[in-house]
């Protein structure tokens, strides 16, 4: 990790009518950093992430992603990021190989690049026997690992992961995080939302949102120290308890 900024956020705000979903947030993420974005349901995580991905125009404030401005350079942002969410799924009726080729094609990669890298990804994920099977035949954990590999196939500067490991067992989640570490080691910046507090421990830095605002932001070690908590679970409970709004 170095001091190059992958993401800069300065007083960013998003209003829906009179309701302020994201309220004046500011932070920076360094290149190669694994940055965890936590908060109770309705805290504003997805709304903030959508602005950073160039999918939603802010009401006020500024932000840059990979050096591009979130108001005027949204197409450039989209080309330079990867995105994966629990809800975003691969095409179930395409094979593993067809899914990889389809998404790589969207980013305009050459046939040679796609062919070579498809082989590498399938080998790394140990999916050789499944390469020509329909994605719907794979277990959820395999689909998620494949979806992550597809999201970074075009070698983006930053990958945004919105609750990427929802619904899978701890062992598979651990394997998924190994992929995240490997990606970060190649210099890809990882911006991840999660509800799992063991995953918060794996992040270099964590930001906790409460009612649209940033309530705390630091390394997991420092947050535990500051809150006099034994685990991130305890940190989260102490901070999120203050939330007035919740979607659940
Ligand atoms: N398009 C919209 N119009 C009106 N309100 C919205 C819209 N999108 C989100 N909100 C509201 O903004 C708040 C923040 O929502 P957001 O989805 O960003 O939260 P979140 O932290 O991602 O929650 P979750 O963990 O449940 O996904 C919620 O109260 C939500 O109902």
UniProtKB/TrEMBL annotation:
GO molecular function terms noted in the UniProt entry: ATP binding; ATP hydrolysis activity
Cross-referenced PROSITE patterns: ABC_TRANSPORTER_2
Residue span, ABC transporter domain: 7-236
Keyword Nucleotide-binding: yes
Any Pfam family the entry gives: ABC_tran
SUPFAM superfamilies the UniProt entry points to: P-loop containing nucleoside triphosphate hydrolases
Keyword match ATP-binding: yes
Keywords assigned: ATP-binding, Nucleotide-binding
Transmembrane segments annotated in the record for this chain: none
InterPro entries: AAA+_ATPase, ABC_transporter-like_ATP-bd, P-loop_NTPase
Name of the protein in its database record: ABC transporter ATP-binding protein
Species annotation: Ginsengibacter hankyongi
């Amino acid at each position: 990790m170095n001091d190059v900024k992958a993401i800069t956020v300065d007083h960013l705000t998003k209003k829906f009518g009179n309701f302020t979903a994201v309220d004046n947030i500011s932070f920076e993420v360094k290149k190669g950093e694994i940055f965890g974005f936590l908060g109770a349901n309705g805290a504003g995580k997805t709304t903030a992430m959508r602005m950073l991905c160039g999918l939603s125009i802010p009401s006020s404030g500024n932000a840059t992603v990979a050096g591009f401005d979130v108001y005027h350079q949204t197409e450039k942002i989209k080309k330079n990021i990867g995105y994966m969410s629990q809800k975003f799924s691969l095409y179930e009726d395409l094979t593993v190989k067809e899914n990889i080729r389809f998404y790589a094609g969207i980013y305009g990669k050459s046939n040679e690049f796609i062919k070579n890298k498809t082989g590498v990804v399938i080998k790394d994920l140990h999916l050789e026997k499944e390469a020509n099977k329909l994605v719907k035949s794979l277990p959820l954990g395999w689909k998620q690992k494949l979806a992550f590999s597809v999201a970074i196939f075009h070698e983006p500067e930053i990958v945004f992961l919105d609750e990427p490991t929802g619904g899978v067992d701890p062992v598979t989640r651990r394997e998924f995080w190994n992929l995240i570490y490997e990606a970060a080691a190649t210099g890809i910046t990882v911006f991840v939302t999660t509800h799992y507090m063991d995953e918060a421990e794996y992040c270099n830095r964590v930001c906790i949102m409460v009612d649209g605002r940033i309530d705390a932001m630091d390394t997991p070690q420092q947050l535990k120290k500051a809150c006099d908590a034994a685990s991130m679970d305890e940190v989260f409970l102490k901070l999120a308890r203050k939330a007035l709004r919740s979607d659940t």
